[in-house]
Structure formats: C-alpha cells, structure tokens
Amino acid sequence: MMESVGVYGFCGCKAKNKMKCDSRWEMTASETAPTSAYSSPARSLGDTGITPLSPSHIVNDADPDVSEQQSFLVVVAVDFGTTSSGYAYSFTKEPECIHVMRRWEGGDPGVSNQKTPTTILLTPERKFHSFGYAARDFYHDLDPNEAKQWLYLEKFKMKLHTTGDLTMDTDLTAANGKKVKALEIFAYALQYFKEQALKELSDQAGSEFENSDVRWVITVPAIWKQPAKQFMRQAAYQAGLASPENSDQLIIALEPEAASIYCRKLRLHQMIELSGKAAVNGYSGRDTVGAGFAQAKEHTRRNRQSRTFLVENVIGEIWSELEEGDKYVVVDSGGGTVDLTVHQIRLPEGHLKELYKATGGPYGSLGVDYEFEKLLCKIFGEDFIEQFKIKRPAAWVDLMIAFESRKRAAAPDRTNPLNITLPFSFIDYYKKFRGHSVEHALRKSNVDFVKWSSQGMLRMSPDAMNALFKPTIDSIIEHLRDLFQKPEVSTVKFLFLVGGFAEAPLLQQAVQAAFGDKCRIIIPQDVGLTILKGAVLFGLDPAVIKVRRSPLTYGVGVLNRYVEGKHPPEKLLVKDGTRWCTDVFDKFISADQSVALGELVKRSYTPAKPSQLVIVINIYSSEHDDVSFITDPGVKKCGTLRLDLTGTSGVAVPARREIQTLMQFGDTEIKATAVDIATSKSVKVGIDFLNY
Q1: Are 599 and 664 in contact (CB under 8 A)?
Q2: What mean pLDDT is predicted for residues 164-179?
Q3: Residues 6+ apart with CB under 8 A from 138
Q4: 299: how many CB neighbours lie within 10 A of its CB?
Q5: CA separation, residue 100 to residues 113, 515, 604 (Å)
Q6: Are 252 and 229 in contact (CB under 8 A)?
Q7: Which stretches does the entry tag as region Disordered (predicted)?
C-alpha cells in the first residue's frame, strides 16, 4: 500500500510540506464516506482522487519551449491607462527604433496629446462609436437630452482593480447611469487600438499588414490581482489581437517592469536627477525641480515631431554604475494606481530579478480629481453635484477637463491663483436647483481659498490646489516609507519615478524631500511614455525579466494516508479498507517565492484507486503560504486537469500508474499539464481565475 509522503517545496527549499488535499473520488451509494458536520468538497463531488507517488519527483527546470519564440515582424505595445492610453511599435529587424503612434486629433490646452484619453462612446444601440478625444468631443457636442441616450465611459480601468469578485459578467456604469459589460468595453477599446496600429503599419509598409505578423504587448499594473490580468487577456482575445490557441502572440506586461527595462537604456541627456547627490543633464538637486523639468519637457517637445525614439543597443550611463546585486526601486505613478517594484541587477547580461513582490495601491492622479469633487460638494452640496453629473453629464466632463489643465499647472513655488472655468450649464442648473447664484454659494460656503471671479471662474489659491494633491501624495510617500523599512530594500541605489503622475512637480518635490538622502532619484524625460517604450522592448526580448515573485501559493488537491493525531477527524475517508485524509493541499509553489522565467515544477501522482481511468486533478491558489487543506479560508479553485485514459487498456501499465503534473511559472500567465507516463497521453490547461 501507499505511504503518506511529504513533498518538498522547490527553489532549493527542503522544508517538509505539511500534506494537504483535494480528493476527487467516485462513490457509489453503498460506499459512502463517514458522516461529518464538515462538508468536504471531496465527498460532495464525484471525481476521482489522486495521491502522491512515493517518492514524489520534484524537478525544477526551464521549459525548452520558452526560447523557441514565434517570429513576428513587429512588436506593438498598448499602454492601456486609467486616464490616457496609447501604443508604440518597433520592427523586429530595427529594434533600436521605437515609433510612438501618430498624433491624435483633438487635444487640450496645457496637456500633451502624445496619448489619448481613455474614454469610449457607444451609440444608444450600444454599438462602438469612438474612442479618446474623438469620443469626448462628439459627446460634448451632443444636445444635452440626446447625450442622455449615449453611453460614455471614462477612467473605467480602475474597476478591474477595485472589483473583488471580478468575472466575465462584471458591469461598468456609463455617465448616463446605464450598465454595460466590462468585457465588451475593454474589447472595444483594444480592437480600436488594433485597427489604428494595423492601419499605421500598413501605411508605413505600403501594403496590407496582417495581425498574424504582430506580437502584442498590453501593460497592466503589477499590483493587479490575477483575475484582472486574466480579464485583460480575455478582452484581447475577444478583440482579435490573439487567440487561446495562439496565446504567445500576446504578452501581458507589468507596468513597472516595462519602465525598468526602458530605464536601463537611459543616457544622461534623457533624464533628470532630482536628488542632490550628483548633477545630471546640467541640473543638480539644488535647482528647482520645476525648472529642470520644464527644460527637459521643452527638449522633448522639440524632438516630438518625429515620434521615433532611438534606443541605443547599449547600457545607459546610470545603469553602467550598477554592479552585480545592486537594487533599485521603480515607482510607477499613473492615473489610477501607484505600483512599487524592487529589482536587482544580474550581470553580465543585465537581466532583472524581482526582489520584493509588487506593492502599491489606488494612489494615482485620480485621487486629486476626487478631492476636487469633494471640494465642489462642500461648496455646492453633494445633492446638487450628484444631480448635475446625471442631468448634465457632458458639462461635468467639460468641468473636469478644465480642472485637468489647471491641475497640471500646480507647482510647489507657484504664487498666482489658478482659474477654473465653470461651464455655463453648471451656473444655470445651479440657479434652477437652489434658487440662488453660484457666487452666493461660494460666499456662504466658508471656503476662503476659493473665490468667484466675474469672468465665470472659480479662482483657487495655489495652497488650495496643493491641498487637493496632499492626501494622494501622502499615501504614496507613506507607502514608500513602509517599503524602505524592508530589509531587502535597505540598500537601494536608485529610485526611478515614472508614469503620467510623475510629471507633477508636487509629487517630485515630495519624493525628493523624503528619499533624496537615501538614494538617487531619477525621472526619465517624456516620463509619461516610459512604460510604453519599455513594453516594446519587453516584447522584443521577453526573457529580460529572469526572476519574478509568485503573487500566490499554488497547489493541487490530493488524498493522503490518514495519520491519527496528525490529520483532523473530519477529513477521514475510509475506502476499500484504506483510511484516507481528504482535501490535502499539495503545494507547488508558495506566495512570494522567487520563480525563474519558464520554471517547471513537476510532481508525480497515482490514482488512489488503481482501476480509475478518468483522472481529475484540481488546481487551487491562495494568497497565504501556510495552506494545509483546500477547504482553508481564502483557497480558490483555479483550474482542472481532466485526463481520460479510457481506450488505453492494451497498454502495459504498472501497478501504480504514474501521472506526472507540471506547472510552468514565471510568465505573467501560468500553464499546467498532466501526463500519463505509461501512454504519454496528456492534457493542458491555463490557470483560470474568472470562471471558477
């Protein structure tokens, strides 16, 4: 008979794993399990059980398929941002040239239109109409009553971060209050980028460019949970960028990793150093932050017409100062989230190792918008603002556009006030709603630092504007302080500040003040495009990230021999005279464990009942690493391998049939395979967080 075996972890870890379990056992009416108040999935479902083979084979090696990359003519990266989005591309024969997409139609005063707003408009019949500036401008020009029929969505990416139980059926709410499927909206947006990019590539090539020639890269925040990352992949499949059968055509890249890859290439003239440790690009940390950045932005603006960025095939000067084992932090501050990752350099190739799992939170520039909305509620009343957003949605969008351009003018040393134009319909609707004027509301509100100007504007003092930034910036600084307390982060050499929000002088100054004495703080020029350009480089060479941290613990459910005193009595299952412990979680990898790209973890199992011809292996995940049973809190099923061995009766099978289970980690997706060693029959599955 089989012994209960301990299975060792991997990555050289020899700590014995307390055996854990999921069994899937076919029971007949005459063979029922002992009754227990505890409802075990193993007893309620009629699947077949597996138990670890003794000794269990544990092999960690890289999958040979990882290096056999499909050949593509071009890599197109899509930076799908919370507030703005865009794409860039590079031909695989000219990897040193990164082309950023064509200029967008439209644009706002004081806002660079290198990317386009992440806004989408559907017709009253729920068909795709337009994206970006085109969507916003068309919506704005609609008659107010007609606008109520159209579905306008903006900043919807945050829904994937904030929804705890994300599924393929999750809804988004349009500006008019109507619900629409999130998957549809994301697929429409990605389809739009696909069509724009293919059209631009075809125009440039002078002939029709096929989608099959393109490797797509879509960026997502590193702090997103696995279901959100999978959701983005599903939306891309629906948009026709790739397919489940050709999944390698699409890479889901983590935003701070993409930034990190680009930062490796930075030359001195492509960055601004904030900290006072050394002068870079002619600026020292003692210069005002705003002055250095303004000159850099002017330099960028002059170079922008070509839209082609040369990435020299060398390591940048900053990078060349890094030695084996040196650490740096990438702070990716975008519209919705802030992502913090810690990377370590591995020489000679300069590959990257993720040293500490990605952390962060919803501390993007949207937080400043929310503070502005709270200020408006304080002055004009929450009931009015809510009604105004519903009754005059296009005017609300106008007001937030006006705020956005003034928000970008906020700076630590600013002394003159900032004027925000109120749309006429705001002033008009307020008078109808309250029976008195906007000016009267401002006088009554006791908000001293916001005045009314006779030109129909809210006049904010610089301190008032800075106060709107404070809660968000405080959250970022606090999160960074926590990170710097960790032993892995104590000797960081550089902090790279990237993402759209990194353009804000107030954030730059706060980061410099808090951490300028701990490490050198570097901002790439054209900082809002850092992730986009890094994502192209990642698509050209996905193997540049060598080691990641696993965000979850993964394992399969098995049966183990029941050991009195060790296993809980409610897990006892007696079968053909053998006492089994059910629901054991057999761990493949622990949360926060280092995983090499393409790393394979193999385990060998045998059917608990020798005559079983249908082997069902259920895969589970948990955010905790101390998991014992699949019934533990927080354990979720995320995959099923069903191996049907009927029709293999002519094959000589050993008494204890070996079923080898392999999980491949390290990419942003995880794949599992089960192989019957005797017949070589196999089945594959991708880990699925949305459909269980």
Answers
A1: yes
A2: 90
A3: 121, 129, 130
A4: 15
A5: 12, 32, 49
A6: yes
A7: 32-61
**Other Cβ atoms closer than 10 A to 10:** 22
CA distances from 454 to 109, 407, 419, 421, 438 (A): 22, 21, 11, 11, 11
- Reduced to 3 states, what is the DSSP secondary structure of residue 564? coil
**Helix (H) or strand (E) run with residue 403 in it:** helix 393-407
Scan for tokens 């759209």, then name that residue. 500
> Among candidates 600, 629, 496, which has minimal Cα distance to 17?
629
Cβ-in-10-Å burial (0-12, 13-18, 19+) of 542 comes to: buried
Q: What are the phi and psi torsion angles at 121 (to 5°)?
A: -125, 125
Q: How far apart are the first and last CA of the chain?
A: 34
Residues 6 or more apart whose Cβ sits within 8 Å of residue 549:
354, 355, 356, 357, 358, 592, 593, 594, 595
Tens digit of each residue's pLDDT (9 = 90 or more) over 199-247: 999 988 888 889 999 999 999 998 888 889 899 999 999 999 999 888 8
Name the pairing type of β-strands 671-676 and 659-664. antiparallel
H or E segment to which residue 378 belongs: helix 366-380
Whether 150 contacts 139, CB under 8 Å: yes
| CA gap 596, 667 in Å, rounded | 9
Query: Is the CB of residue 606 less than 8 Å from the CB of residue 48?
Result: no
CA 525 remoteness from chain centre: 23
Sorted by sequence, the CB contacts under 8 Å of residue 207 that are 6+ apart come out as: none
- Which residues neighbour 514 within 8 Å (Cβ) at sequence distance 6 or greater? 477, 480, 481
Average pLDDT over residues 404-425: 89
CA 549 to chain centre: 14
- Which residue reads 């950045």 in tokens? 293
Structure tokens of 320? 């060349």
Contact 554, 588 (CB under 8 A): yes
**CA 540, chain centre distance (Å):** 20
Whole-Å CA distances, 581 to 458, 572, 585, 635, 682? 69, 5, 11, 18, 27
Q: Which residues pair with 643 in a beta bridge?
A: 615
- Residue with tokens 């890249």, as numbered in its chain: 253
Residue 145 tokens, joined: 């009553």
Q: Which residues pair with 84 in a beta bridge?
A: 117
Helix axes 393-407, 382-391, angle to 10 degrees: 110
- Answer left, alpha or beta for residue 463, where phi above 0 means left and psi between -120 and 50 means alpha: alpha
The SS3 of residue 362 is coil
- Rounded CA gap, 168 and 181, in Å? 8
pLDDT in tens, 271-329: 777 754 443 333 334 344 444 445 444 444 444 444 566 655 545 566 667 777 888 89
Q: Where are the beta strands (DSSP E) in 164-279?
A: 171-173, 179-181, 214-220, 250-254, 271-273
**Other Cβ atoms within 10 Å of 323 Cβ, number:** 9
Rounded alpha-carbon distances, angstroms, from residue 266 to 349, 447, 452, 493, 522: 16, 46, 46, 16, 10
Q: Is the peptide bond before 348 cis (omega within 30 degrees of 0)?
A: yes
Q: Mean of the per-residue pLDDT values for the chain?
A: 80
Q: Which of 360, 399, 356 is nearest to 380 (CA)?
A: 399
C-beta of residue 335 within 8 angstroms of C-beta of residue 366: yes
**Residue 313, class by beta-carbon neighbours within 10 Å (0-12 exposed, 13-18 middle, 19+ buried)?**
exposed
Q: E strand or H helix at 123, and its extent?
A: none
Burial grade of 171 (CB within 10 A; 0-12, 13-18, 19 or more): middle
CB distance 393 to 147 below 8 Å: yes
Q: How far apart are CA 602 and CA 673, in angstroms?
A: 9
